[in-house]
User: What shape does this take?
Amino acid sequence: MRGVVLHSPGDVRVEERPEPRIELPTDAVIRLAATCVCGSDLWSYRGVNDVTEPSPMGHEYVGVVEEVGADVRTVKPGDFVVGSFMASDGTCEICQAGYQSRCAHVQPVGAIGTQAERARIPWADGTLVATPGMPDADLVPSLLAASDVLGTGWFAADAAAVGPGKTVAVVGDGAVGLLGILAARELGAERIIAMSRHESRQRLAREFGATDIVVERGDAGVERIKDLTGGYGAHSVIEAVGTQESMMQAIRSTRPGGHVGFVGVSHGVELPGQEMFYSAIHLHGGPAPVRRYLPELIELIWSRKINPGKVFDLTLPLEEAAEGYRAMDERRAIKTLLTV
Assistant: This one.
């Protein structure tokens, strides 16, 4: 089968990869309908993460089940499914508590690589959710978004305790930050402040529910948030980047007693103890337990109450994946969808 392989920073190739097969009775093999490039893929593409050998890429996916292992009960061949970017057994104490992304037997789907024609998904019962039927073509991008960026944005808003009457600030205008705005709107936020310098992303932010745009960054961005909130800071802040600057901007934009939901993949972030002590804020985040939210998100998409698929502003065939990576790296695209 054809699949995307990263050979070294900047060197993305689509080449022949081994056909997936059932290896354990809890596995499923799916034929991908669509996949995409994630902002977190760019850490490796840019060489921030070490790339020591050719690596299959991709962890976001929707498709049709072709085969299941003997122990799989919740999905069957012919089902259209959405899966989390982390495979979880669904039965351990951590999964039962709603943190499937940190399952005691977790398997990162990125190690399998779903930017491909087919993929083996471990722990099918705990990872995949079938849609009510075969989706219309225009729903596929939104269902694909649920696999990671929508689920991650939703977790960020949940972790930040977004709710009615709250003011929310969102640090990061990539796909996760934008869908964090959508989640905040759906969870009833009264005011949503998007921190963005890019006009196309600002437009989408407003479409998803942003009421205010802040273009400043760092300390200037913090002061602008304070100005907009009577000097207090936001009740809820979503951090969707993963750098030292973005994390400190999020923390300093939060009022005492407020909540930060951080989901940007952390790179070089160190928290100053004394500042954290006196900030008196709640800090919660990490790899999003997307599987917790999938049933609700699929229902919202299926009933056309939300359209997170708008976050894909570039669609290419799988064979042109390298251009999809370049476009996101150069900020010519927010998020690239790959048709299979």
Summary: Residues 290-302 form the longest helix (13 residues). The chain has twelve helices and 18 strands. The first strand starts at residue 2 and ends at 8.
